[in-house]
Structures are given as C-alpha cells and as structure tokens.
Amino acid sequence: MNYNKKTVKDIDVKGKKVLLRCDFNVPQDKTTGAITDDKRIRAALPTIQYLLDQGAAVIACSHLGKPEPSFEKWAKKQAEKGKDPASLTREKWEKTLEALCMEPVAKRLSELLGREVILAGDVVGPDASAKAAALQPGQIMLLQNTRFEKGETKNDPELAKAMAGLAGADGVYVSDAFGAVHRAHASTAGVAAHLPAVSGFLIQKELEFIGGALADPKRPLVAILGGAKVSSKIGVINNLLEVADTIIIGGGMSYTFAKAQGGTVGDSLLEADWLDYCNEMVAKAKAKGVKLLLPVDTVIADRFDAGADSQVVKNGRIPDGWQGLDIGPETVKLYCEAVQDAGTVIWNGPMGVFEFEKFAVGTKAVAEALSRTSAITIIGGGDSAAAVQQLGYADKMTHISTGGGASLEFMEGKELPGVACLLDR
Fold first, then answer.
1. C-alpha angle 188-193-195 in degrees, rounded to nearest 5
2. Burial (CB count within 10 angstroms: exposed 0-12, middle 13-18, buried 19+), residue 151
3. pTM above threshold 0.85
4. How far apart are CA 54 and CA 139, in angstroms?
5. Nearest to 373 by CA among 227, 246, 220
6. Is 423 helix (H, G, I), strand (E, B) or coil?
7. In sequence order, which residues have a C-beta less than 8 Å from that of residue 74 and are 6 or more positions away?
8. Which of 73, 114, 221, 386 is the most buried (most CB within 10 A)?
9. 207 DSSP 8-state letter
10. What are residue 30's phi and psi, to 5 degrees?
11. Cβ neighbour number for residue 278 with a 10 Å cutoff
12. How large is the greatest C-alpha to C-alpha distance in the chain, in angstroms?
C-alpha cells in the first residue's frame, strides 16, 4: 500500500466546503450520556482548526456506537438475545437511537473550539442539506451519527454520493478517522469517488510512523506482541517476520506457544487449534534469522482475580488449577534488554493482565524500558495504548496509534480502504 498520500496542506480549501470524517466514537456514561473520555475529539482539533483558519466551511461527520438503523433488525437481534418480542416496541428502539445521537459530541467540540458547532438533525436529509447549503467559510457543522443511515456500513453508493453532495461541486473530502479506515463504509471510502480526497493530520501521522516503521525502519526493529490470542495476531506476526530484527511474544498468546513446544500450561489461555502455527512461526523466524523471544518464566495465579495467590514458575511448567497472568522476572529482564539498543520498537498487546495491579508488572516494566530507550517507539492502539496511558508512560512514547483494529490491519500489511481511496502525492 502506498503510504505517501496528499494531506490538507497539499490542497487549497479557501472558500470551499470540506466534508471531514472524524472518529468521534467516544465512551459515554450509560445513565447520563455524558462523554467520559474526549481524547478522540481532542485528537481531531488540529485538522479542524487548520481547515477553519484556511477559510474552509467544515462539515464534520462520524459514527457513534453501534446503532441499528432498522427497527425490524433491532427487534430481531433483541429477540435472539432472549428479550420478550412483545416488549420490543418502536418507542424503545427510538430511545436506543436517541442515546447515540451526536448532541454531546457537538457540545464538547464547541467547548474545545471556542465556537458554535451547528448540529444537523440528520445525515443527508433536509436539515443537513439546508444547514450545509447555508454554511459559511470559518463555520463548522456536525452531521448526525453516520450509522443512523442503513447504507453507511454497506458503503452504499447513493448514500456516499448524497454525503459528498453536501460539500458541493467544488468540495473536498478529508479523512481523519484512523480508527475507521480499515472499514469500507460510505463515509470512510465511498465519498472519495465523488470528491478529491486527502488525509488530515491524524492519519498523516499514522502513515508516517507505522508506515515508516514497516517500509524503512530505523534498525534494529523490535516488535513486541502481546494480548490474549495468537489467532488475532497471525497476519501481524507473518508480516513482521519479513521486516523485524527481533520479535518478542508475551501475554495470553505466549501460552499457546509454550504448549506447542511441549510445555504444560494448566488453566492458562490456550488456542489448541493454533499449535502447529506457533511451531511454524518459530521455524520461520529461525530460517529468516529473526530473533524470536518467548517467555522463560511466568507469574501464575490460582484463579483469575486481582487478589489471587501467585507464584513464579518456569515457562511451560504450569500445574493444573493454575493459570499464567503475567511474564516472570527473568523474562522481564530479557525483554527490557532486547529493547535497550533498538532503533524502532512497535508494541501491540500487553504482557499480562495489566488491569490487575499484581499482574501488571511485566507490562509496566516494558513500558518503562521503552520510555528510557532512544528508539522510535510506536504503540499500536487498543489495549497497549490503554496500558501506557493507565501506567503513566503515554507522554514518553513517540507515537500512540488512535486505531486498534486499523493499526493491527496496517501492521498485517493489509490495504486500508479509507487510506487507499486518498490521492497519492
């Protein structure tokens, strides 16, 4: 995939209407609907501010949550979950949509920008059309939740055409929702068929850091892969074996590797169907001269609980009734030494159950080691991003990706529809 895409700085937006795809899929309080973390809104501010300063009229859009735009489908899904079909009324369905309307986002965005954000009552309906037509340079409006439209997730060409139409004949499309670029939706890819499409600063940064680390890394390139499942990281491991100098394995997925090599893993996380694959990866790393580091010891617990009894055992020697929840002290030392002289480090997935303080030692030690290295440090979104934030090392990292699934697919070498559709430089 070509990572060298045009950005907002490569085009003239003065006096033009810009359809801007953001990632405003923010967590909300279930009772009040109040936004509990506005990081994603703040992340969009540099691009928005730049466009407004350049004299553009900005039509921002985003999805929020997973609304079901069809009453029939919603009722069917609820019934499948065991809800009484007689209780599934249109009124209840409408309330689920109301809970995911963009009003709290518009309010918070308005506070952060220090100017009014005009909120449309629909996505491409009469209200959005009228407000977009009246929008003046230096003004910003926000469309309703893009997933209120049935055609959004199906990349419906008519919906894409209607959304692009809001920006007018000389409009521009700016993609800045990295967390959604791995999906070919009407608002992430479809609109680019009707408007010149460029990236915002957020996507530009992701392409520069992750794309740069894969295409032309400062060496040695060390990849740290953790998390629960080998199956979710297959593509990533395969792709990184082509470019990395060292690959470090931790987290729940390491127990499948331990079992594959003849070890006992007790009640630890295990994907029995992937044992042969683990051995293939070990053999492939050896053949390619890639150093593949696996845990040498592990912290085990008698139950999955923050206050569980724990002990350290050699990796692959976990007794029945016990489960691995973190890498052990010898492994911590080994992994921290491995990143010491790295040129680039990509990290995706925690080393253990970092949500429990007792089993966050490995993840914290790796984060601390990365904070001390002079390497370019890239955190690949999702749980690893949450871990470095929670443990207080976020400001010490070179780049923290804003997309969990998108950064994973990026690292797999997959084409991202929301990036492929942008104009090449």
1. 85
2. buried
3. yes
4. 11
5. 220
6. coil
7. 68, 88, 93, 96
8. 221
9. I
10. -65, -30
11. 22
12. 69
Of the CA atoms within 13 Å of residue 150, those in its CB half-sphere come to: 5
The residues carrying an active-site annotation are: 40, 229, 382, 405
Assigned token pair, 187: 């608002």
Sorted by sequence, the CB contacts under 8 Å of residue 403 that are 6+ apart come out as: 23, 178, 179, 180, 181, 182, 206, 381, 410
Read off the amino acid at residue 245: D
What tokens appear for 406 in the block? 């998108």
* Best CA proximity match to 306, nearest among 243, 352, 340, 272: 352
Taking the CA atoms of residue 420, residue 233, residue 235 and residue 382 in that order, the dihedral angle to the nearest 10 degrees is 10
> How are beta strands 323-327 and 297-301 bridged, if at all?
antiparallel
Model pLDDT for residues 217-250, shown as the tens digit of each residue: 899 999 999 988 888 888 889 999 999 999 999 9
Report which residue type is found at 9.
Answer: K
Whether 327 and 338 have beta carbons less than 8 Å apart is answered as: no
**Pair of tokens at residue 342:** 């790295």
Residues 17/226, Cβ–Cβ less than 8 Å: no
Question: What DSSP designation does 319 have?
Answer: P
